Amino acid sequence: MGDKPERRVAVFGAGYIGLVTGACFAELGHRVVVRDIDPEKVRLLRAGDVPIYEPGLGDLIARNKERLSFTLDLEEALDGAEVAYVCVDTPPSASGDADLSRVWSVVRSLAGAKDLKAVVVKSTVPVGTGSRVRAVLDESGLGHVGYASNPEFTAEGTAVHDFLHPDRVVVGASDETVARLVADLHRGVEGPVVTMDVRSAEMVKLASNALLATKISFINEIATLCEKTGADVTEVAHAVGLDHRLGPHFLRAGIGWGGSCFPKDSEALRQLASNTGYHLQLLSAVIDVNNLQKRRAIQQLNDELGTLAGARVALLGLTFKPGTDDMREAPSTVLASRLLAEGAEVRCWDPMARPGAAEPWASTTRHPTPELAMAGADAAIVVTEWPQLKEVDWAAVAGAMRRPVLYDGRNLLDPAAMRALGFTYMGVGRP
Ligand code: UDX
After folding, report:
1. d(Cα 276, Cα 34) in Å, to the nearest integer?
2. Are 237 and 221 in contact (CB under 8 A)?
3. Could you tell me which residues come within 8 angstroms of residue 138 by beta carbon, excluding any fewer than 6 positions away?
């Protein structure tokens, strides 16, 4: 790797994406400064702590500390920087469009960066944002600086691996020099680099997430039909996925998708379409099915228990998926709110989540083990498929619950085995 050009990269935003991007570029041999405006985050990172839970990230940061630093200071970040990577978050605005204010504040702050050769946006943005960034750069005296879109496809929990071994690296650029520079930054990454125009690259990200969400909502609707017809969705999904044209991934029926990307990006894509006067019908249904999925679970539990008022319900797992501490748009939040609204008592267990003191969590209790959360409960819901739940002594739990009713929202457990232990077992799309 001796011929590898080492670049100086300023990464803006020390969230999930910025930290993974910064640490991985340092691992690839570049000099990276990560800049964030949150003093506490920067303080933690400088002290060698990682403010989020992402497997492998702490080791990667520690291993590359010679080439990786963290700062609050804009000038320090831009000093000598050749590439500015924008990795700030783009949360939904009041209208459902992506809120780009953080992107603009970074782009505007770049004026005067002497060594800058390229600005790259990794944050998920509406199609057309690149042209607007280009205009701001031109106005800021950075007309000579190139622009590229380099969307991220890393999944939380496997982000470091996904970055270094991607299915593809997408680079959207208006000229070949910038495209080559961004592609070269990725030298050492095991995966093909696909270059295209900026707008197409912006669309790839939104379309990929929308199609993944579509697969899940599709199998969730089939699951509902399986319940009504006596079929087993896990068998159906397995056999459907063996068709290589369809593939086995993202066909796990469950309580619905959440996280920092799917909910926000699917809504942003829908609004983007609406803004052009087109109504994305399929995507709208995909979002509706996902919302329904959580409400259906509560309804089914209500039918089983007769009423949820006064019922004690354990939520097993709070994060939107296992392997992360992220609670953004987690199905657990809707489940807890709905249960509380019906008058239930909500008892929670999760090995990583920090739900905070806001509602609905303020009105729930937290327990250190799944067994303690379920002790004396009338029902339990598997919300997140944490592997720890496989290790639970379910026979003992069946005896310790007031009513052994189990809603397996991730089809994690064996229905026959659970029924043999005395549980009233309900899965998603399983007879
Ligand atoms: C996703 C994309 O995978 C990634 O490419 C993009 O960059 C960001 O969004 P992430 O949000 O980390 O990554 O999680 P992912 O593993 O994709 O799961 C998303 C949600 O779908 C989770 O709530 C998960 O539980 C759910 N899911 C996933 C299902 O319900 N069924 C499945 O078969 C797969």
Report:
1. 36
2. no
3. none
Half-sphere exposure of 41 (CA within 13 A, CB side): 17
Neighbouring C-beta atoms of residue 74, cutoff 10 Å: 17
Instruction: Please name the residue whose Cα sits nearest to atom 14 of ligand 1.
Output: 155
Q: What is the pLDDT of residues 268-283, one digit of tens each?
A: 999 999 999 999 999 9
Element (H, E) at 182: helix 176-185
Residue type for 265, please? D
Q: Using the mean position of ligand 1's atoms as its centre, give its distance from the Cα of residue 286 in Å.
A: 14
pLDDT surpassing 80 at residue 70? yes
> Mind giving me the DSSP string for 66-97?
TTEEEES-HHHHHTT-SEEEE-----B-TTSS
Query: Could you give the strand order of the β-sheet that contains 424-427, starting from the edge strand earlier in sequence?
Result: 365-366, 345-349, 312-316, 379-382, 405-408, 424-427
Distance 260 CA to ligand 1 centre (A): 9
- For residue range 129-167, list pLDDT tens digits in order: 999 999 999 999 999 999 999 999 999 999 999 999 999
**In terms of Cα–Cα distance, which of 78, 81, 64 is closest to 29?**
64
Predicted confidence (pLDDT) at residue 253 exceeds the cutoff of 90: yes
pLDDT of res. 3: 56
Q: Say which amino acid occupies 90.
A: T
* Cβ-proximal residues to 365 (8 Å cutoff; 6+ apart), any chain: 345, 346, 347, 348
Let me know if 385 is exposed, middle or buried by CB neighbors in 10 A (0-12, 13-18, 19+): buried
Q: Are 315 and 374 in contact (CB under 8 A)?
A: no
Is residue 2 very low, low, confident or very high in pLDDT (cuts 50, 70, 90)? very low
Which residues are near ligand 1 (CB < 6 Å)? 152-156, 209, 212, 216, 250-252, 254, 257-262, 320-321
Query: For residue 269, what are the CA distances in angstroms to 38, 127, 209?
Result: 29, 9, 10
Query: Is 261 among the residues known to form the active site?
Result: yes
Peptide bond into 360 cis (omega under 30): yes
Written as one letter, the residue type at 193 is V
* CA 258 / ligand 1 centre spacing (Å): 7
Which residues, in sequence order, are CB contacts of 121 under 8 Å at separation 6+? Answer: 86, 103, 129, 130, 133, 147, 148, 149, 150
State pTM to two decimals: 0.94
Marked catalytic residue, from 87, 226, 261, 348: 261
Q: pLDDT-based confidence at 352, cuts 50/70/90?
A: very high
Half-sphere exposure of 283 (CA within 13 A, CB side): 23
What does each C-alpha distance from 318 to 86, 294, 313, 429 come to in angstroms?
30, 13, 13, 22
